[in-house]
Amino acid sequence: MISLLLVFLSQISLILGAPQTILCLIHTATPSHETRAKTILETWVQHCDDFLFFTDSKMNDSIPHIYYPLLNSRDHSWEKIRRVFKYVRDKITKKYDWYYRADDDTYALMHNMRTLLDNYSPTKHHYLGLQWNFFTPRGFNDGSSYILSRPTMEAFNEVMLDPDRCPDHHRAEEDQELAKCLAHMEIYPEDIRDEMGSERIQHFHPLEQLTIYKDTFNRRLAYYPAMKEDENFSDKMISFHHVSPYEMRLMDYIFYRLDKP
Amino acid sequence: MMEPKSIFLLGLLLFRVGKLMRNDKLAWSAEYEAKKFKFYHNTSLFLTLQSTGPEMTNLCKKSWCDKVDDYFVVPHHYVNWQKPTEQWLIHHFSKMILHTRRLPQQAQWYMFAFDNNYFFVERLIKELSKFDSHLPIYTILRDFHADIQHKPVLIFSRSALNTFYDLEEENCSENAENVEEWLTTCMSIPPITISVDRSKKSRIFAIKRHFQVDEMKTMPNDYHDDKDYIHRHSSSLLSFTNLSLEDLKLLPIFVEKVQGGYKKKAASKILF
């Protein structure tokens, strides 16, 4: 009896202690295959458990990717992301705890993402990112970088089947449409700022983020007020946006190669 | 016997003269920064920082400069705003070094740098502590992997500084081709090398391309991410150099604030 209990407890501890798995989905396009996608492939995406580029033309066979030749403009983004998440659910056998969607001008710090996700259960509905305060009553997460738990990904696939609640139309702002569809399933963005009130995900270039608290657009439409200057950067940053491949390389050197005394 | 009024006026005159003599304008033949120098003992590193502008200097002060034992800032209006030649650097470094004679301090090491640097001061001090500052030791820090012109940083032991003072008039002609040749001739001994690691990777990282919005537009044709150049630099870096204002705004955040990670095993391919 005691031995059975011990075996049961050890199995539970294994399940509870198991690291959470993340599938990274990176949006790119043909002009960026040899620049942005290549740099991402050699840097931060290696810290995901698995990854998949989604684009508009064929990439090298060694790179996990899917492509939609007819959905080749920014205005096709909403149609593309619907198909990507459908593909992820239907065609990929492995089940991940989390699905991270990123632009190809995003640099992500996956170790900080994992630290954040340790505070959330992957078996519940979660929709995490940088929150904007418009388009839907409870806002939406910025499309440059957001994270869905598996149940949320499933819920998105479910609501997609309903054209009234989640229509498939031509639109660039896939992040807004996603939030609208998820809201029908009562899934809303959550506050992932750190204990100091700093955002972990950024939309603007790091240099612009230093003074974004003064920006009229941001003051009006950000869900939470931006902090000033370096306070706008969490010490547990998850992603930077609008960075070039060179800047990604340099940041990768600083964050992963440089020994900081 | 002097009248009280005369004594008072004399005292006031002496006070004003004394104040004038302490005035920074007389000391460096120009202006000092308004900073009082304290006597200190057993101080490791004293920095003479050449300002190229108040914004850059303030960013240095807020970040790495705060970690040296003490520093003095040479005002920016002494900098040649055109791209400095090696001859200009030799002349200006000579003035910076000789100026330290006027400063009341007893550091073990003296560093001479422009404010376009970001130093890992703890690592630098740890490196210098391997050497005996009572010996005439000096080093010239430059990124020898970089194919761009950039300003070096000089570090002298206390003893080397005294040697420079003694030999400066006889040996230190400013007609040398570069700072390395000038100092080697001047000091009559070669510098030590701490700017490369055991793998011959540079511990000084000269930034050739800078952080900026729309950085890709700076290279409209044949864009590349400079992977090879970046990977030629050591993980035990002593400094970034040749920094722009934008670099100095972001580097302290990336280096000191945001938590970096460690290499993870490569992500596997998705099995369809």
TrEMBL record, chain A:
Q: Which Gene3D superfamilies match?
A: 3.90.550.50
GO MF annotation: an example: glycoprotein-N-acetylgalactosamine 3-beta-galactosyltransferase activity
Which residues does UniProt assign to the signal peptide?
Answer: 1-17
Chief localization? membrane
Where does the protein end up?
Answer: Membrane
Q: In which pathway does it act?
A: Protein modification; protein glycosylation
On whether Membrane is a keyword of this UniProt record, the answer is yes
List residues of the Fringe-like glycosyltransferase domain.
21-130
As for membrane topology, the entry says:
Single-pass type II membrane protein
The cross-references to InterPro entries, in alphabetical order and at most eight, read:
C1GALT1/C1GALT1_chp1, Fringe-like_glycosylTrfase
UniProt keywords, alphabetically: Glycosyltransferase, Membrane, Nucleotide-binding, Signal, Signal-anchor, Transferase, Transmembrane, Transmembrane helix
Under Enzyme Commission nomenclature, its number is: 2.4.1.122
Q: State the superkingdom.
A: Eukaryota
Assigned GO CC terms: membrane
Q: Name the family.
A: Belongs to the glycosyltransferase 31 family. Beta3-Gal-T subfamily.
PANTHER family linked:
BETA1,3-GALACTOSYLTRANSFERASE, GLYCOPROTEIN-N-ACETYLGALACTOSAMINE 3-BETA-GALACTOSYLTRANSFERASE 1-RELATED
Q: What protein name is recorded for this chain? A: N-acetylgalactosaminide beta-1,3-galactosyltransferase
What organism does the record attribute this protein to? Caenorhabditis elegans
